[in-house]
């Protein structure tokens, strides 16, 4: 990883991995990043985790795409069959001119036959351009990205009940809290630098309440660890709120001043006494009561949640419960109080803010609002586009199967790994008659491409990203892209021109200036300011204000300034265990690997630490199966089957198996269920009925 003193230049930027958004200094020698240090960003204060510190060398991997590639006419049928070291059997190199003309010919004028997936790994400017490309160029809203697979249900509930899809308080505010709930999140693995703040909070005496069907490292620091039954979240949270109502621990003044629909919520909660819910959620009534009292009687409390909450068909209901819990206790809008869905990718907040979703233009302005659309088309100098919400990620794949969508432009996403019931998605990708993939590697999705456009890694380009804390941060290029690879904003701009759009951007700064015209969230945040200060939190109230870490202290962006209680009823998981599939499969990430693994599995240190596809089972379950730790098991659901190495892990319940989704050789999403939450349209990745058997592997 290089000698720490041996570098020519250093460039301040942002970690390309998780939503914490740690600021880094990239040390460069001979156009290579040789090592990385944490610097004093607002989210990390110099700290980095193993991915941020050692996960950068994927940038220089031999597999980087350096020239546009066009599928050969004599290539084998589309499938997951391209060897990255021997791609010439399937693709041929092309000039940029030929490649862009080929893309434009395949997309231009095809209207609703075209759909697009952008990426939370790209910058705000790139996300903005991508959604504009689809809306302006093709007249509809069939554009989405991986927020649909992580926190779409959280955002749906927050917009509905609080009026804003972002966090109400930065995670660093935990330093002012005296109680914090972490539910359905494993920050030590997935938001490691945020987890260091949570541990510090516990060490100084804060009450840390961890709720998760799977045990985790934060348990060691928790005052309460509620290892509840998978899928029983709503029952458990309603039981806790029942106690707060029954014992009159709620904040009457706050509720009267700032909320609506309280009486309906109160009446609904009457059906959830802890004594009745205890067996359902697997947590005894006294513990539920103790947690309710601790949270309600605290001076300041925060709630953090992750994909364990959101990735259910009742994901929106889970978030509604958490919002109601914060509102009834008045734990919003003060130092140390607030709601914080821990965002996954380094720019998933920003990409959503920039309108890379099918129902909203930038700043969550509805596509159905005529005034909103005309404000954008005026800036774009273009005609009106559809006033109907577009299709979401999984709906787009269904529309490909139905023959309604025939061409796609995919920038930086990897649906051939990340979609639920992934063979369904892979079959859809194979059916497309034009698939343009823009990426830095020959990903599983690029295997199905008709055209691959070589793009830039984060350390090779300029642009802003927005982290889980609403902090807009400046990313700067430290090295030049390999070969003929180009920055993503520049590729999309050139493709738009060839598709007939009149785009005149010379730099990401031009794009940012246009974004500001219709995004109030960016008021007082300019490119020059970010270049000077590195980060500004939105909302920023003046050109000098570093931004507001806490919002909604004096009301909410909803009618009459009031947040809403939306009662949540219990909805059972879609794919429940039975005699044939008796256990529960849950999927997630590991510390060393990032999402579909395209970057971290090409990082020497990270891949050396965690090189093999694995799953975790309780030691007693392994004994019952007759499998030694390190042996192999076959996991089978109604969708498919994988064989994978098994680890013994007491944190996993007896009837559960945990499978990370970064490994193509045992792709977790071959097994997962595509049933959707009706509001956020997020799939139920966290719960599938599964059969686990011993497997013989040579
Ligand atoms: Fe990067 Fe997240 Fe680790 Fe920070 S915590 S170094 S942003 S992966």
TrEMBL record:
Signal peptide range in chain numbering: none
Keyword field contains Cytoplasm: no
Keywords: 2Fe-2S, 4Fe-4S, Iron, Iron-sulfur, Metal-binding, Oxidoreductase, Repeat
Residues spanning the membrane: none
Residue span(s) of domain 4Fe-4S Mo/W bis-MGD-type: 8-63
Family: Belongs to the complex I 75 kDa subunit family.
UniProt protein name: Formate dehydrogenase subunit alpha
Protein source organism: Marivita lacus
């Amino acid at each position: 990883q290089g000698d720490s003193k041996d570098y020519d230049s250093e460039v301040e930027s942002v970690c390309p991995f998780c939503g914490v958004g740690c600021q880094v200094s990239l040390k460069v020698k001979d156009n290579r990043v040789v090592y990385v240090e944490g610097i004093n960003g607002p989210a990390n204060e110099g700290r980095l985790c193993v991915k941020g510190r050692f996960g950068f060398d994927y940038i220089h991997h031999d597999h980087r795409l350096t020239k546009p590639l066009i599928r050969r006419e004599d290539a084998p049928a589309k499938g997951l069959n391209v060897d990255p070291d021997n791609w010439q059997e399937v693709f041929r190199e092309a000039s940029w001119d030929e490649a862009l003309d080929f893309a434009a010919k395949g997309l231009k004028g095809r209207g609703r036959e075209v759909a697009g997936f952008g990426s939370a790994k790209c910058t705000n400017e790139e996300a903005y351009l991508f959604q504009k490309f689809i809306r302006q160029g093709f007249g509809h809203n069939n554009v989405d990205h991986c927020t649909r697979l992580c926190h779409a249900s959280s955002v749906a509930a927050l917009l509905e009940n609080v009026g804003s899809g972002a966090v109400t308080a930065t995670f660093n505010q935990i330093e002012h809290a005296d109680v914090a709930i972490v539910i359905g999140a494993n920050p030590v693995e997935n938001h490691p630098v945020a987890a260091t703040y949570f541990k510090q909070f516990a060490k100084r005496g804060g009450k840390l309440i961890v709720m998760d069907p799977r045990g985790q490292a934060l348990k060691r620091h928790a005052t309460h660890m509620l290892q509840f039954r998978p899928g029983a979240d709503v029952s458990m949270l309603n039981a806790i709120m029942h106690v707060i109502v029954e014992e009159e621990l709620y904040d009457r003044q706050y509720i009267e001043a700032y909320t609506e629909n309280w009486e309906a919520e109160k009446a609904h909660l009457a059906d959830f006494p802890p004594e009745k819910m205890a067996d359902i959620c697997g947590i005894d009534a006294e513990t539920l009561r103790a947690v309710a009292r601790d949270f309600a009687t605290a001076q300041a409390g925060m709630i953090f949640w992750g994909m364990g909450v959101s990735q259910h068909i009742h994901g929106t209901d889970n978030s509604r419960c958490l919002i109601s819990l914060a509102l009834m206790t008045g734990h919003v809008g003060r130092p140390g109080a607030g709601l914080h869905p821990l965002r996954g990718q380094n720019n998933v907040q920003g990409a959503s803010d920039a309108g890379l979703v099918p129902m909203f233009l930038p700043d969550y302005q509805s596509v159905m609002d005529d005034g909103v659309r005309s404000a954008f088309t005026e800036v774009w100098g273009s005609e009106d586009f559809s006033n109907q919400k577009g299709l979401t990620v999984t709906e787009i794949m269904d529309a490909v199967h139905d023959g309604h969508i025939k061409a796609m432009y995919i920038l930086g996403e990897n649906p051939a790994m990340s979609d639920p019931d992934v063979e369904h998605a892979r079959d859809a990708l194979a059916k497309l008659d034009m698939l343009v993939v823009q990426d830095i590697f020959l990903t599983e999705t690029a295997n199905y491409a008709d055209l691959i456009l070589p793009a830039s890694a984060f350390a090779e380009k300029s642009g802003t990203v927005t982290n889980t804390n609403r902090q807009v941060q400046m990313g700067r290029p430290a090295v030049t892209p390999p070969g003929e690879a180009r920055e993503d904003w520049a590729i999309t701009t050139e493709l738009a021109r060839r598709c007939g759009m009149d785009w005149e951007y010379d730099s990401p700064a031009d794009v940012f200036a246009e974004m500001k015209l219709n995004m109030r969230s960016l008021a007082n945040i300019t490119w020059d300011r970010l270049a000077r200060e590195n980060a500004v939190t939105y909302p920023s109230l003046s050109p000098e204000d570093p931004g507001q870490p806490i919002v909604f202290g004096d009301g909410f962006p909803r009618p009459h300034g009031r947040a809403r209680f939306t009662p949540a009823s219990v909805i059972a998981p879609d794919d429940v265990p039975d005699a044939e599939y008796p256990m529960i499969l849950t999927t997630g990430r590991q510390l060393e690997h990032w999402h579909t693994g395209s970057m971290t599995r090409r990082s020497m240190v990270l891949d050396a630490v965690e090189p093999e596809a694995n799953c975790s089972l309780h030691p007693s379950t392994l004994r019952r199966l007759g499998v030694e730790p390190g042996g192999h098991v076959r996991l089978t659901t109604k969708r498919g089957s994988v064989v994978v190495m098994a680890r013994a892990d007491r944190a996993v319940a007896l009837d559960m198996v945990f499978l990370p989704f970064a490994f193509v050789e045992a792709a977790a999403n071959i097994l997962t269920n595509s049933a959707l939450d009706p509001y956020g349209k997020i799939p139920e990745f966290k719960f599938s009925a599964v059969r686990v058997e011993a497997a013989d592997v040579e």
